[in-house]
Design goal:
This protein is of the alpha+beta class and about 110 residues long. About 20% of the residues lie in helices and about 30% in strands. The protein is built from one helix and seven strands, in the order βββαββββ. A hairpin with a 3-residue loop joins β5 (about 75-80) and β6. The termini are far apart.
Length: about 110
């Protein structure tokens, strides 16, 4: 493991995640154990991913498909500087979408 990034939650708990190598020219200074303190809270880092999930759900719930259920899976990486971002599977971003429909139940006639 290259190192850890520590995120604090809104209630002060610490969430440690495996570090992602930054592509920018700047480097964060880590403690002697290789741990870096994130510049955002854990919730703040995930805000963009939450917005992306809300947008994706809107796309698949609206329109003509009308699924009974929508499941969206993001591969998410966390960075001390960038926060959370959708991870790439190969050369593209990682996103899995599952739409489900329940079979129609037996039609019932109104009680007489």
């Amino acid at each position: 493991m290259d190192g850890l990034v520590e995120f604090r939650t809104g209630d002060g708990a610490v969430v440690a995640v495996e570090a992602v190598e930054e592509r920018s020219g700047s480097r964060l200074v880590s403690r002697g154990d290789g741990t870096v303190q994130a510049t955002r809270t854990f919730e703040g880092a995930l805000e963009g991913v939450r917005s992306a999930a809300e947008s994706a759900l809107r796309v698949f719930r609206d329109g003509s498909l009308k699924p009974d259920g929508v499941e969206i899976e993001f591969g998410v990486k966390l960075s001390a500087e960038t926060g959370a971002f959708i991870a790439k599977g190969t050369a593209e971003g990682h996103l899995v979408v599952r739409l489900t429909w329940s079979p129609a139940g037996p039609e019932t006639s109104p009680a007489s």
